[in-house]
């Protein structure tokens, strides 16, 4: 039995009280590495969600007017507490998500860094002075918090996807209701516990756990008190939420699915490209929105790249992420492993060849896989696999690969490797994505804007732009001001 003091059984914070579900019903949370039940969380529904929204609305009355220095200090304290408890929080991420401890430690640092970042950004929500074009007035803009925010996050980054939103919301002066992912709710509850200890007032952060995400999601998306929804997850669910949000014209931030191209030109440093593919394709066993989904390799270096990537993958150690030396853990559940297998079997049926992997393991495990000879109509060319499958596609020209890379409704991230500076600029400009990795497979940084174009979403998270997504810009025109006495 795994122990972790942050496994908070059967209760979530609503209006500063840790409460269960009105029905008394709970549901289990599993360790995907071995199926062990880690604990239970409440199955909260409509009544609890409405109470959480009311609590956030009441808390907003005070929090929105709190001095930015107060918000900064509380967020800094929260960051310090996360740092103090870093190892246990990282272990919690591994327990409920399955990612290896080294990756979980990375996520924990990444997660805390959003709180540190937005603590500072709270102090920089500047407005403008705008020169008057008519007599007797002065113009300024001020930024104000948008109001109560509904936050819906995924299981692939149980901690960081929450802080990237909540820290920005709190820094802006907003309060929130978080619907925690049902697969990985304990990291959300741990964050809330530490926020409380750091002095975040009651009702500012409320957390709902539920067996019916669609019920709670719909309440958040349609409730008139909620002024903004921030969602990370699939494009399908994002579209449902967007249509629900239209009833009250809520502002939305949507960080949705991707189908990232990863392109290797024949002038690339092939070893660097292989290292980039390992991190970009196989980080978190391929379960990140910015993971490479289609690997395009120019014909001259195709065989060399495929061979070297296969060698690199053969060195992976797959297993329980808490064990020493494990580089890759299970997927989040058996359903996720089944989806990877569907993509593999479809590609094989259409003529692909397996260089390594290609089989399901026990439960939620899937072997890291490299396939070549991918048909244009293979499912993996269109759909995000969200698992450890690297399909390698041969191409001849820059023009051809740009066309293929952009032939998707998604536009989150894109990567390429080339040592030709002209090509680097051309590719960076040609890829229809929100984020580009040129000669790197790892782009995520707290200080840089995270977000996509096309059906990969709206808005930017993190960075100096992330705070604006939680604020409204107000223009104030002051009249009756004579220029001369
Ligand atoms: C995501 O998968 O949505 C986030 C990945 C990241 O921040 O690197």
TrEMBL record:
<dbReference type="InterPro" id="IPR010102">
    <property type="entry name" value="Succ_semiAld_DH"/>
</dbReference>
<dbReference type="InterPro" id="IPR016163">
    <property type="entry name" value="Ald_DH_C"/>
</dbReference>
<dbReference type="GO" id="GO:0009450">
    <property type="term" value="P:gamma-aminobutyric acid catabolic process"/>
</dbReference>
<comment type="similarity">
    <text>Belongs to the aldehyde dehydrogenase family.</text>
</comment>
<dbReference type="GO" id="GO:0004777">
    <property type="term" value="F:succinate-semialdehyde dehydrogenase (NAD+) activity"/>
</dbReference>
<keyword id="KW-0560">Oxidoreductase</keyword>
<feature type="domain" description="Aldehyde dehydrogenase">
    <location>
        <begin position="18"/>
        <end position="476"/>
    </location>
</feature>
<dbReference type="InterPro" id="IPR016162">
    <property type="entry name" value="Ald_DH_N"/>
</dbReference>
<dbReference type="InterPro" id="IPR029510">
    <property type="entry name" value="Ald_DH_CS_GLU"/>
</dbReference>
<dbReference type="InterPro" id="IPR050740">
    <property type="entry name" value="Aldehyde_DH_Superfamily"/>
</dbReference>
<protein>
    <recommendedName>
        <fullName>Succinate-semialdehyde dehydrogenase</fullName>
        <ecNumber>1.2.1.16</ecNumber>
    </recommendedName>
</protein>
<dbReference type="InterPro" id="IPR015590">
    <property type="entry name" value="Aldehyde_DH_dom"/>
</dbReference>
<feature type="active site">
    <location>
        <position position="255"/>
    </location>
</feature>
<comment type="pathway">
    <text>Amino-acid degradation; 4-aminobutanoate degradation.</text>
</comment>
<dbReference type="InterPro" id="IPR016161">
    <property type="entry name" value="Ald_DH/histidinol_DH"/>
</dbReference>
<dbReference type="Pfam" id="PF00171">
    <property type="entry name" value="Aldedh"/>
</dbReference>
<dbReference type="GO" id="GO:0005737">
    <property type="term" value="C:cytoplasm"/>
</dbReference>
<dbReference type="InterPro" id="IPR016160">
    <property type="entry name" value="Ald_DH_CS_CYS"/>
</dbReference>
């Amino acid at each position: 039995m795994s122990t972790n003091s942050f496994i908070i059984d059967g209760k979530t914070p609503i209006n500063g009280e840790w409460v269960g579900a009105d029905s008394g019903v709970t549901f289990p949370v599993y360790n995907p590495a071995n199926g062990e039940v880690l604990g239970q969380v409440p199955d909260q529904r409509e009544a609890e969600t409405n109470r959480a929204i009311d609590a956030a609305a009441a808390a907003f009355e005070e929090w929105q007017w709190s001095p930015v220095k107060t918000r900064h200090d509380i967020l800094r304290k929260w960051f310090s507490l996360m740092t103090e408890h870093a190892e246990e929080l990282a272990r919690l991420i591994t327990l409920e998500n399955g990612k290896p401890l080294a990756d979980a430690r990375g996520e924990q640092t990444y997660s805390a860094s959003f709180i540190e970042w937005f603590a500072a950004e709270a102090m920089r929500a500047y407005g403008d002075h705008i020169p008057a074009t008519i007599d007797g007035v002065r113009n300024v803009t001020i930024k104000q918090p948008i109001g109560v925010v509904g936050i819906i996050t995924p299981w692939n980054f149980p901690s960081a996807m929450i802080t990237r939103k909540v820290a920005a919301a709190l820094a802006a002066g907003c309060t929130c209701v978080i619907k925690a992912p049902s697969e990985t709710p304990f990291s959300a509850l741990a964050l809330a516990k530490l926020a409380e200890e750091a002095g975040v007032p009651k009702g500012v952060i409320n957390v709902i756990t539920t067996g019916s995400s669609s019920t709670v999601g719909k309440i958040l998306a349609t409730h008139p008190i909620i002024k903004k929804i921030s969602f990370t997850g699939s494009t399908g669910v994002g579209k449902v939420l967007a249509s629900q949000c239209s009833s009250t014209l809520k502002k939305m931030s949507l960080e949705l699915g991707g189908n990232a191209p990863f392109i290797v030109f024949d002038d690339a440093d092939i070893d660097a490209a292989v290292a980039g593919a390992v991190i970009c394709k196989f980080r978190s066993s391929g379960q990140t929105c910015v993971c490479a989904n289609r690997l395009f390799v120019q014909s001259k270096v195709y065989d060399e790249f495929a061979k070297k990537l296969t060698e690199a993958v053969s060195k992976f150690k797959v297993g329980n992420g808490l064990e020493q030396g494990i580089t890759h853990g299970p997927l989040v559940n058996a359903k996720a492993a089944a989806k990877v297998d569907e993509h593999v079997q479809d590609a094989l049926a259409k003529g692909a060849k397996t260089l390594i992997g290609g089989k399901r393991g026990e439960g939620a495990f899937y072997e890291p896989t490299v396939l070549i000879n991918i048909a244009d109509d293979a499912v993996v060319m269109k759909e995000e696999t969200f698992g450890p499958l690297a399909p390698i596609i041969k191409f001849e020209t820059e023009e051809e690969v740009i066309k293929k890379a952009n032939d998707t409704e998604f536009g989150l991230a894109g990567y390429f490797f080339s040592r030709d500076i002209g090509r680097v600029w051309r590719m960076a400009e040609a890829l229809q994505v929100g984020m580009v990795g040129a000669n790197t497979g790892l782009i995520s940084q707290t200080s840089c804007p995270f977000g996509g174009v096309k059906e990969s979403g709206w808005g930017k998270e993190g960075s100096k732009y992330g705070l604006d997504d939680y604020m409204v810009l107000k223009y104030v025109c002051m009249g009756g001001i004579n220029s001369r006495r």
